[in-house]
Amino acid sequence: MCEASNTAKMHRVGRSDQSGQVGHRARRGASSGVVASDDDDPLPFEFLLKKKLEWSQGNVVDGNGRTTYFRRSYIVPLLLVLVCLLVYIAPFEQTATNDKHNVRRYVGIFVMMFLASAAPFAPAGPFKWPHPVFWRLLTCVAVVYQMGLAFLLFQTANDSRQVLKYLDESLGEPLTRKSYGENCTFWDAEHPERVMQKLWEECDIYWASHLLGFCLNALAVRDYWLTHVMSVMFELIEYSLEHQIPVFEECWWDHWILDAALCNGLGIWCGMKTLEYLDMRLYNWRGLWNVPVYPSKRETRAGRLESHDWSRTRRFKRCLAVLLYIASLLIMELNAFYLKSVLWIPISHWLQLVRLVLYLIGGAAVSRQVYQYLDDPNCKSLGPWTLMAFLLVITELAIIVRFGRDLLLIPFPDHILISWIAGFLALTSWLVWRFFIE
């Protein structure tokens, strides 16, 4: 959670005199009339104060009569509960001879003891709802997931798959492949009733994952534009990775009618309407690079620099940050399918469902912290949830690269490479035109 410093730095905050005018002094050690970077360009005090008040309304505060009780330290009662549990298990419970059963029980007790012990010390989330304890426990669950990923990373591929058998006997076996790209004829004039039959045959866990996933995505990112960009981009990525992930081989109408239009579109609409019903703040990710232009002229080594030049640089940096955030969200979603391939975990398995729920609910906190960091100049750093999510995604990528190297080295078809190069050049051209030419 970001808080403005009581003594703001002169190159970021500035000061206002009694007349309301904003003045700035050069940083200590800097030569007169020389600016080292874009961060030296000051923003008006009124703008910074407005952002500070705007974002402070959503912070979790103590003393409201409901959260204070749960935000106290209850180390002694928790210690007594855990001791009673261990005392009961030691003399009264008979030890099982099944190794896998004992391991499952150990994992369950370990997770429960860790959650109970670490929750009082975990950082609270950026929201008041549903409760600070909820976000503390979710933070601890993310730490447990990170420790599990780190354990798998230092095993061999086969050992990692067999270790998962301790959680579920059905894991550790090669997965069967279901084809979605056969018989892509959508309309048959002689048998129009087969359209509904074909749609019904395609209904499976992926429909539910698309609908639920993009509903929670909308609740997290709170923007129609960003969620629809993610929906379209993910379908394009599925086209591009069909040679590595066979489940991505779908018919055109499965990509764009069933997934993008129906499931994703309906999920986004439900999520955004839920936000409107709850009267929650919506985010404007496209508006982040529309930085206000304030009149100021600064001297640099290259000469006088007008205010719109500084504003242009800020806009470009924020646009790049939004693009990187979109890319990180797409990588997080792709990791589920690559983990399925390298660790043999079906998408419909409860482990995949727990991972999806953890990312999408925690994504609300991550989106809040990232958006506030980009929107509020008083916010000096990203929050703990963002750093934890980054660590989880990087660890998953490390497992995929370590165990799925042969899968990742399958060469891309020429038309896929040419299409992505053309798209990258088009995006680069738009960025140059939008921020440096227009």
Automatic annotation (TrEMBL):
<dbReference type="InterPro" id="IPR004277">
    <property type="entry name" value="PSS"/>
</dbReference>
<dbReference type="GO" id="GO:0006659">
    <property type="term" value="P:phosphatidylserine biosynthetic process"/>
</dbReference>
<keyword id="KW-0808">Transferase</keyword>
<dbReference type="GO" id="GO:0106245">
    <property type="term" value="F:L-serine-phosphatidylethanolamine phosphatidyltransferase activity"/>
</dbReference>
<dbReference type="GO" id="GO:0005789">
    <property type="term" value="C:endoplasmic reticulum membrane"/>
</dbReference>
<keyword id="KW-1133">Transmembrane helix</keyword>
<feature type="transmembrane region" description="Helical">
    <location>
        <begin position="319"/>
        <end position="338"/>
    </location>
</feature>
<comment type="pathway">
    <text>Lipid metabolism.</text>
</comment>
<feature type="transmembrane region" description="Helical">
    <location>
        <begin position="134"/>
        <end position="154"/>
    </location>
</feature>
<keyword id="KW-0472">Membrane</keyword>
<keyword id="KW-1208">Phospholipid metabolism</keyword>
<keyword id="KW-0594">Phospholipid biosynthesis</keyword>
<keyword id="KW-0444">Lipid biosynthesis</keyword>
<keyword id="KW-0812">Transmembrane</keyword>
<keyword id="KW-0443">Lipid metabolism</keyword>
<comment type="function">
    <text>Catalyzes a base-exchange reaction in which the polar head group of phosphatidylethanolamine (PE) is replaced by L-serine.</text>
</comment>
<dbReference type="Pfam" id="PF03034">
    <property type="entry name" value="PSS"/>
</dbReference>
<protein>
    <recommendedName>
        <fullName>Phosphatidylserine synthase</fullName>
        <ecNumber>2.7.8.29</ecNumber>
    </recommendedName>
</protein>
<feature type="transmembrane region" description="Helical">
    <location>
        <begin position="74"/>
        <end position="91"/>
    </location>
</feature>
<keyword id="KW-0256">Endoplasmic reticulum</keyword>
<feature type="transmembrane region" description="Helical">
    <location>
        <begin position="382"/>
        <end position="404"/>
    </location>
</feature>
<feature type="transmembrane region" description="Helical">
    <location>
        <begin position="416"/>
        <end position="437"/>
    </location>
</feature>
<feature type="transmembrane region" description="Helical">
    <location>
        <begin position="350"/>
        <end position="370"/>
    </location>
</feature>
<feature type="transmembrane region" description="Helical">
    <location>
        <begin position="103"/>
        <end position="122"/>
    </location>
</feature>
<comment type="pathway">
    <text>Phospholipid metabolism; phosphatidylserine biosynthesis.</text>
</comment>
<feature type="region of interest" description="Disordered">
    <location>
        <begin position="1"/>
        <end position="37"/>
    </location>
</feature>
<comment type="similarity">
    <text>Belongs to the phosphatidyl serine synthase family.</text>
</comment>
